[in-house]
Specification:
Structural class: alpha/beta
Oligomer: single chain
Largest sheet: 7 strands, mixed
Order of helices and strands: EHHEHEHEHEHEHEEHEEHHEEHEEHEH
Distance between the termini: 26 Å
Strand order of the largest sheet: 2-8-7-6-5-3-4
């Protein structure tokens, strides 16, 4: 097995990657480089203080670091800092838009457009608000190679559609969306486009201006950062027209028992004491991936996907899902074997994969399977991990053959 000579080898940066262990579950959550762990330790240790409230030096320093992280995220997305809202993760980001934008801007009879491959976090929040206000939901089918069918999207869109919400990279299939075309199609009928970027930001450059979307959401923990922190980017005019999602400290301008006024965006959406160390860790994670280079990461993972698909497709009992050019993710099934059994046997050989419906039950139904086995890659993976995966799947076929 020969990968590109420029293939990445950063496993030594990750204390969680122990010798002989093949971690192939980065689509669920990425391991953390030492640089991120160190940044979090400093934030909880010698640098720790609250933000936005204290007048003493350490609090001022931490406030500066917190807002510097917002600026860093903005540069990472090609955005402005006042358009960056810190949230707990992509799930909260999507719920925020569902409650504060859809919940106030849409009316009975309007429609939302999703796709068949969406994660539950990009389905259920829209269902909750749609049921409350009487909005309909339509679903875009997939192409023969299991990508979002944008031709079908074009045919389905009407002026009743006010929001389109799509994943940039499928967490099951690795399918990559042409976001620019999707945005143009949505805007042609006056709809807004929200993009779930969870699986995109760890492996490809994202420029929200070039993509043309209106909202963009991602979670830090898939980007080699900490859990409990995520980002919502939105066009400033849209955010500015949205009411608060939660009430509490920090998000206010003036509070009286008669009336409360609210802070400008993004502060309006960041009620309470924030996840300070999470924000600092996210900053370190972005520095880490951009230090490697997202183009290099994408090329490396593309090579791993090709090698894995080629090797697995040579096994007669293995069925592959997703397109040939999937981004960093390979889902598969072994004939006659439940994916949970596949994952258990692989674990016996020190190979960690994900098995299940991957929070995408409608997609599983369309694929005609209850679940899939999924291998997903990161900057710490290489040829040895592919070899271990294939060896484990071969063992599965022998045991159940």
């Amino acid at each position: 097995m020969v990968l590109d000579p420029q293939a990445l080898d950063f496993a030594a940066d990750f204390p969680g990657i122990t010798p002989g262990w093949s971690y192939l579950d980065s689509a669920a959550t990425a391991q953390k480089p030492q640089a991120v762990i160190d940044a979090i330790a400093r934030a909880y240790g010698p640098d720790y203080a609250t933000v936005h409230r204290g007048v003493y030096k350490r609090s001022a320093d931490m406030t500066y670091a917190y807002e510097a992280a917002r600026e860093r995220v903005a540069r990472f997305l090609g955005a402005r800092a006042q358009e960056i809202v810190f949230v707990r993760g992509a799930t909260e980001a999507i719920n925020l838009v569902a409650q504060s934008w859809v919940g106030t801007q849409l009316k009975p009879g309007d429609r939302i457009l999703l796709s068949l491959l969406e994660h539950h976090s990009n389905i259920v929040p829209w269902q909750l608000v749609a049921e409350r206000i009487g909005v309909g939901i339509d679903v875009i089918p997939l192409t023969a190679d299991q990508k979002i069918d944008l031709d079908a999207m074009a045919a389905m869109l009407t002026e009743r559609h006010k929001l389109v919400a799509l994943g940039q990279v499928s967490n099951v299939l690795g399918s990559v969306l042409d976001v620019r075309r999707a945005a143009d199609l949505a805007h042609a009928v006056g709809a807004r486009l929200l993009v779930d970027g969870c699986q995109a930001v760890p492996r490809m450059t994202v420029d929200v201006a070039a993509l043309g979307c209106d909202f963009y959401a991602f979670s830090g923990h898939k980007l080699y950062g900490p859990t409990g922190i995520g980002v919502l980017w939105g066009r400033h005019a849209l955010l500015d027209a949205m009411p608060p999602y939660q009430g509490g400290g920090s998000m206010i301008d003036k509070v009286t028992f008669a009336r409360t006024t609210y802070a400008p965006v993004p502060t309006r959406f960041e009620a309470g004491t924030p996840h300070i160390s999470g924000v600092i860790g996210l900053h370190a994670a972005i520095d880490y991936v951009e230090g490697i280079g997202l183009d290099r990461i994408h090329a490396h993972e593309a090579a791993l996907v090709r090698e894995a698909r080629d090797a697995l497709s040579a096994l007669n009992s293995v069925r592959l899902f997703g397109p040939e050019d999937s981004a960093g993710i390979v889902s598969f099934a072994v004939e006659g074997v439940h994916p949970h059994d596949v994952a258990t046997i692989l674990d016996e050989g020190n190979v960690a994969i994900r098995a299940g419906h991957h929070c995408a039950q409608p997609l599983m139904e369309a694929l005609g399977v209850p679940a899939t086995a999924r291998a997903s890659f990161g900057v710490y993976n290489g040829p040895r991990d592919i070899a271990a995966l294939v060896k484990g799947v071969e063992r599965v076929t022998r045991i159940f053959g």
